[in-house]
Amino acid sequence: MAENLEEDLPRFMKQKIERNRQKAIIIKRSKLVSHPYTKGAVISEDTTTIKIGATKYKDTGGGFLLEEEPEAADIPENVAVQVQAPIFEPDRPTCEICHKQFATSWLFDNFTLKCCDTCRMIERCEADQYEQVEKRALEVWGSEEKIEEERERREEKTGFSKIEKNIRSR
């Protein structure tokens, strides 16, 4: 039926319809703005929604962009996650620090380093404390040489005090 109407229209009306159609296409394309500085394709869907790649952001009007929740159709239903097989008792690795067997360890899983999570945390804490002590010593004494001199002075002092204790105890 629509085809019959177009055939019955005069030529100037058909031209006007075509011009309006072309204008509509241009307006629609102007609303779909692509930003050159982004990695993914940026598309403005309407005045308040921007789509970057697969993520949609909503303009709050207060200077913030809120990430919209993906629609159910956008979320894949079955996502395969690779899970390592469990380590059974006789095959469990032994921690190189505390010499205890462990079932799981972040260092072992990622780097095959035989260190349990407990020792890993202790090592990290000790390293942080050592770094803080070293930093504070540099603040107090000023240089590595002065720290070393103070260490030697204290060792001599403790050496003399041990000798004095031995003499007194006799």
Summarize the structure in words.
With 170 residues, this protein is of the alpha+beta class. The protein folds into 2 domains: 10-67, no CATH class; 89-169, no CATH class. The protein is 50% helix and 9% strand. It is built from 5 helices and 4 strands; from the N terminus they run ααββββααα. It has a 4-stranded antiparallel sheet with strand order 1-2-3-4, with no helix packed on it. The longest helix has 26 residues, at 144-169. The chain is elongated, with a radius of gyration of 37 Å. Residues 144-170 are annotated as: Disordered.
What's the β-strand tally? 4
Main beta sheet, described? Answer: 4 strands, antiparallel
In whole angstroms, the N-to-C terminal distance is 123 Å
- Any idea what the shape is? elongated
Structural class: alpha+beta
Assess the beta-strand content as a share of residues.
Answer: 5-15%
Secondary structure blueprint with pairings:
Elements: H1 2-8, H2 11-31, E1 42-44, E2 49-52, E3 55-59, E4 65-67, H3 106-111, H4 117-141, H5 144-169
Antiparallel strand pairs: 1-2, 2-3, 3-4
Overview features:
170 residues, alpha+beta, 2 domains, 4-stranded antiparallel β-sheet, 9% strand
